[in-house]
Each structure stands twice: as structure tokens, then as C-alpha cells.
């Protein structure tokens, strides 16, 4: 029968998952098996055109093998759309850095990272940076971090402050843009400029994620066509209620998931 094994179509006489693995990896019984998108240690009867990935622990896969693994976990048609997507991220702080990590792990083919700041110690409480990144430009530090997660995605960076004059130009090639600023005035500039000047662009923004209020108050809503807002819309950072990793990450997850849904053509929250 014909199967897709590590992304390549192959013909085999083996009728079970375990017999196929034993033949391909006779000296390595600790191989991880992904069977039709599901990691399993159980045996299974094989059928025509099924997708199987075998992963050697501790070994860096080739680009083809990693893509096959992503396909296996995400399902083929989902991964194809994700791989071909391009997303711009405005602001690489607590929201933007965590959103970028989530999208890189999802396999988004091209990420456009925009920020003008450097990594400093107070960022480490909620942002996806390490002590070794201190003093680096956020664009360059995050690019390096993402390449360690998925070396095969494309990443472009702009180390620049976004203004009313340059916002539309900076994101001219990004069909989906994520607003991830800390300061309300920067949020307003980006949202208003892009929605006014970029017809058809899809924008995912955030408002209200500070402190340690209930996780369940953070939601995603469709404000109007092509504009989505994540957060509780009220919890701003202030004395006694700072920006903390758990709640910031929850909101970043909402934004990342809405971006994924838009990539897949799902426009409802």
C-alpha cells in the first residue's frame, strides 16, 4: 500500500504501525510515532494514504522532515495555509513576543517583527526573552529565539517606531497585523491608521490584560469587519496592578488563536 511517511509517499508491504516502525528503525525502539496527527505508542492497522511521522529523539530533523511533522500534527490542509501565511506583529513586548513564539510553533511561514526598543531587565517578568538578551534590540533577540524554535520559517524585522506617517508603509505586505503595544496612544495610532488606509487588512488588537483578575474575563470579540479585540477592555496597568506573565500570556493566546483562525479563513470569534 501507499503511505505518506515523514512527508514522502512510499510503498510498503507492512500492514501495521509497529511492523513498519520496526523495519525502518530496527536499532532504535524509542522512536516517537505520529499517526494521522496523533502521537501514539499503540499499534494500528494501516490503510492507504495515511500520514505517519517517525521522530528520532534528540536529532534535528531536516526541513522536509520538520514540515512533515508539522503536517502530521496540524493536518495537511491546515498546515498548508499556515505555511503560506504572513503576519505582521507591531510591538514585541509581553503580548507581541509571546504571540510570535506561538505563531512560530504553529509554523506560520513568514513573521514580520516590528519594534524600536531594546530588551531590559523589567521585560523578563512577562516577555519571551532571556538574561542573555539584555541590551539587544528586541527585533534581533526575538528573531534569534524564533529561529531556535523553527529554523525554517521566514522572519523579517524592522527596528523602527511606528507613526501615523509610516504605519501603512511598514505593513504594506502583511494581510494580517497584530497590535501588541503597551501604551494606549500607540495602539490608537496603529489601529486607526491601518483601518483607514489599508482596505482589506485584518487587524487583531488587545485591550485590558493587566493584573491578576479572572482569566475568564479575557475574551475575543469581533468589533466590526476585519477588526478583532482581545482582553477584558478595562484592566489597565496602574499602581497596585502591573503587567504579569500569566494574564498577559492568556491575552497573547487569544490573539494568536484569532490570527490562526483568520489564516484558516474563519472570521467569527
UniProtKB/TrEMBL annotation:
A biological-process GO annotation: cyclic threonylcarbamoyladenosine biosynthetic process
Entry keyword annotation includes Transferase: yes
Keyword Membrane: no
Keywords recorded for this protein, A-Z: Nucleotidyltransferase, Transferase
GO molecular function annotation: nucleotidyltransferase activity; tRNA threonylcarbamoyladenosine dehydratase
A Pfam family: ThiS-like
Domain THIF-type NAD/FAD binding fold: 79-268
ThiS-like ubiquitin domain ranges (all copies): 1-58
Identification of the protein by name: Sulfur carrier protein ThiS adenylyltransferase ThiF
Source species of the chain: Clostridium thailandense
Amino acid at each position: 500500500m501507499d503511505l505518506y511517511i515523514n512527508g514522502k509517499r512510499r510503498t510498503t508491504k507492512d500492514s501495521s504501525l509497529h511492523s513498519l516502525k520496526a523495519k525502518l528503525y530496527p536499532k532504535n525502539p524509542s522512536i516517537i510515532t505520529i499517526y494521522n496527527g496523533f502521537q501514539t505508542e499503540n499499534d494500528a492497522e494501516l490503510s492507504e494514504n495515511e500520514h505517519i511521522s517517525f521522530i528520532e529523539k534528540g536529532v534535528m530533523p531536516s526541513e522536509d522532515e520538520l514540515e512533515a511533522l508539522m503536517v502530521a500534527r496540524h493536518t495537511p490542509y491546515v498546515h498548508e495555509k499556515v505555511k503560506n501565511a504572513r503576519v505582521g506583529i507591531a510591538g514585541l513586548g509581553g503580548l507581541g513576543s509571546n504571540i510570535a513564539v506561538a505563531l512560530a510553533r504553529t509554523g506560520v511561514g513568514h513573521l514580520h517583527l516590528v519594534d524600536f526598543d531594546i530588551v531590559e531587565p523589567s521585560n523578563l517578568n512577562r516577555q519571551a526573552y532571556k538574561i542573555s538578551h539584555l541590551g539587544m534590540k528586541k527585533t534581533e533577540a526575538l528573531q534569534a529565539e524564533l529561529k531556535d524554535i523553527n529554523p525554517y520559517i521566514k522572519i523579517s524585522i524592522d527596528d523602527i517606531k511606528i507613526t501615523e506617517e509610516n504605519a501603512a508603509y511598514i505593513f504594506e505586505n502583511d494581510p494580517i497585523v497584530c497590535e501588541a503595544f503597551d501604551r494606549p496612544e500607540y495602539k490608537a495610532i496603529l489601529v486607526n491608521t491601518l483601518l483607514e488606509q489599508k482596505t482589506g487588512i485584518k487587524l487583531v488588537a488587545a485591550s485590558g490584560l493587566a493584573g491578576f483578575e479572572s482569566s475568564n474575563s479575557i475574551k475575543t470579540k469581533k468589533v466590526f469587519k476585519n477588526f478583532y479585540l482581545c482582553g477584558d477592555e478595562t484592566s489597565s496597568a496602574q499602581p497596585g496592578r502591573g503587567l504579569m506573565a500569566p494574564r498577559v500570556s492568556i491575552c497573547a493566546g487569544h490573539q494568536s488563536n484569532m490570527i490562526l483562525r483568520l489564516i484558516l479563513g474563519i472570521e467569527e470569534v
